[in-house]
Each structure stands twice: as structure tokens, then as C-alpha cells.
């Protein structure tokens, strides 16, 4: 049985939408943030957990009664680093702002379309870590995704009650008064 989690499904959906819409951006998933490459154009780094390393909060199951049965909901936190560089104007901070905001907007649109109603951004901040020379800009987005924690799939089919209901309705004699 293959296991798939909500965060990896969201990541795959965003990568697929970027590819389908020809939106160029390197996307990386994991805890280890890749080293910056000078003048690398656009990158999204998806890191499970928030900056304090919290995985999220357990909540009651959402939409019970399905198969597999949800036992609980993990309000799973993750952090996305949105980095963009306008290589044509490396020293122009306004150009770096525009490049980063454009990538953030494209990312948000893709996430919103893939996870509408189960996703929220808890915090968005500009990374203002000062370097000797800045290449591009970076937004740090702390997000939350509702992820079901499910029980094992139930293999027994529920009893077919359709026939019992039909039989009981056939047994009822309906007498309508005639005016």
C-alpha cells in the first residue's frame, strides 16, 4: 500500500501547475536549504515544520464517515522560502522586490487552487538577513495545511440496504381518499 501525505500531494500539485503553465522556478522539498547560487533566478524551498520546528497541532477529525476513516486532523505546518533574482538589475532592490513578489503570487495561486479550504498562511516575512552583497530577495512563508490522519482502509463492504427499503415500501398499501 502506497502512503501519500497532504503536504507532498500539495507540493506535487504546485510543481505540476508550474510545469503546465510554464512558470519557471526550481522547487526543492526537505529540511536542508540548498546553498544559494549567485544569480540563480527563481526558487521555492518547501521545508516541513515552522521556524521553531513545530510540526503542527492535532485537531478533531474533519469529515468523519469516510473510508479510510479519519482519526484526527493534523494542522501541519510548513515553511516555504520564495527567492527570486532579477539578474538584469542585480543592484536594484525594487527590481528584486518585483521578481520575488511575482514568484510569490504565482506560488500562492497554485497553492490556493490545489488546496482551497484546507490551507492558510500563518505568517509572511521578508528575509532581511544582510549579506555583503544581496542577490535577489526572499519571502519566508509559514503555512498550515489540514492533513487527515487516517485509520486503515476498511475492506468489508457495507450491507446493501437498498433492497430492504424497496421491499418495505412495496408492502405498504397506500389508500388515497377520492374527493
Classification by helices and strands = alpha+beta
Q: CATH homologous superfamily - what is it?
A: Phage tail protein-like
CATH class: Alpha Beta
- Overall number of domains: 1
User: In DSSP terms, counting alpha (H) and pi (I) runs of 4 or more, how many helices?
Assistant: 3
Number of strands: 6
Give the strand content.
25-35%
How is the biggest beta sheet arranged?
6 strands, mixed
Separation of the first and last Cα atoms: 64 Å
The SSE order reads HEEEEHEEH
Cα-based radius of gyration, to the nearest Å: 25 Å
> At the third CATH level, what is the topology name?
STM4215-like
Helix proportion range: 25-40%
Residue stretches low in confidence (pLDDT < 50, at least 5 long) are none
Shape category: elongated
The average pLDDT score comes to 82
CATH architectural group: 2-Layer Sandwich
Detailed description of the structure:
With 179 residues, the chain is α+β, with helices and mostly antiparallel strands. It has one domain (6-170): Phage tail protein-like (STM4215-like, 2-Layer Sandwich), CATH 3.30.2000.10. It contains 3 helices and 6 strands, in the order H-E-E-E-E-H-E-E-H. The protein has helices spanning 6-20, 93-115, 162-170; strands at 26-29, 42-48, 56-59, 70-84, 119-126, 137-150. Strands 1, 2, 3, 4, 5 and 6 form a 6-stranded mixed β-sheet that branches. Helix 1 (6-20) packs across helix 2 (93-115). The radius of gyration is 25 Å and the shape is elongated. The model has no long low-confidence stretch (mean pLDDT 82).
